[in-house]
Specification:
Blueprint lengths: L8 H42 L8 E7 L2 E8 L2 H12 L6 E8 L22 H17 L6 E6 L2 E7 L3 H12 L6 E8 L8
Parallel strand pairs: 2-3, 5-6
Antiparallel strand pairs: 1-2, 4-5
């Protein structure tokens, strides 16, 4: 196989190599200048971070490429993150800040409730049962049939629960029940009624 080369081929190759070398020669000082500038920025950012009391103990990585500073690592809270970002962007020559910092998860101490033995519910005495029966009869006679009120008596204290037509009705029922023989007090916390009564 024969190869034929143009007389101008070696000259073209030589020109291409020269152009490449010339371009590389021009670029090398720029690359070297950017590299030294990046190193200076990285050193200054690290110095700023090390001098901040809020960031003591936090490990923050700093990398600079062409004036773009990247912060990485984990800081204790959003305030520390903000302080690190401010310390970095204040350095001369920083063109862009890439914030890849993470904040440590918040660990809240949960107070464990000491297990305390529950107080045994007092048993209903025959007297309490009699009071309950009397109160139930009184309410059945006094209230419209659509309202049902549950009654529990413990040591002479009557606990009422259910729904009534109004707040005034709750007050009236409490007064009536308090007059039953043997009742020490009336608890109406379990009773509910609308705040506004509509009359048709």
């Amino acid at each position: 196989m024969n190869r034929y080369l143009s007389d101008k081929a070696p000259l073209r190759a030589l020109l291409a190599v020269a152009a490449f070398a010339f371009g590389l020669g021009l670029a090398m000082p720029c690359i070297a200048a950017e590299s030294s500038s990046d190193n200076r920025i990285t050193a200054q950012v690290k110095e700023n971070l090390a001098g901040m009391e809020r960031l003591k103990g936090d490990e923050i990585g700093v990398k600079t490429v062409n004036g773009v500073v990247t912060l990485s690592g984990t800081v204790r809270d959003p305030h520390a993150k903000f302080a690190a970002v401010q310390a970095a962007i204040s350095v001369e020559g920083v063109r862009v800040l890439d914030d890849e910092l993470k904040t440590a998860p918040v660990r809240r101490k949960v107070a464990m409730a000491d297990p305390k033995p529950e107080k045994p519910m007092p048993r209903h005495s025959a007297r309490d049962d009699k009071i309950t029966a009397n109160v139930q009869q009184l309410l059945a006679d006094s209230l419209p049939s659509r309202y049902k009120v549950d009654v529990v008596t413990t040591n002479g204290v009557v606990y009422l629960s259910g729904d009534l037509q109004s707040r005034d009705a709750i007050a009236r029922v409490s007064t009536l029940v308090a007059q039953v023989n043997g009742v020490k007090s009336v608890n109406t916390v379990g009773l509910d009624a609308p705040f506004v009564s509509m009359v048709y």
